[in-house]
Amino acid sequence: MKKPNILLITTDQQRYDTLHCAGYDYMITPNLDALAEDGCLFTNAYSPNPVCIPARHNLLTGLTAKYHGFDDNYFDESKSIPFDLPTFAEILQDDRYNTVAIGKMHFQPYRAHNGFNRLELMDEIPRFLEDDDYTMYLRRKGYTNLQSVHGVRHLLYMQPQKSLVKEEDHGTTWVANKTIETLDTISLERPFLIWAGFIAPHPPFDVPSEYQDLYRDRAIPMCKTSNTSLSNLAIENKNIADYPNETYLRRARELYCSAITHVDTHVGRIIQKLKDIGEYDNTLILFTSDHGEMLGDYGTYQKFLPYDSSSRVPLIVRYPSRLKSNTVCDELVSLNDLLPTMLDVAKLDYPGKTKLPGKSLFDQTKHDAVFMEHCRGNRRWVSIRTKEYKYNYYFSLGREELFDMIHDPDETTNLIETMKDCVESIRNDLYNRLICYEKEYGLPNTIEDDRFVVMDEMEIHFYREANLPQFPRHLRKEDEGLWSLKKELIEAIKDEEVIHLDELDTEYYIKQGVFTKEEIQDMKEELGR
Question: Mean pLDDT across the stretch 419-433?
Answer without folding.
Answer: 97
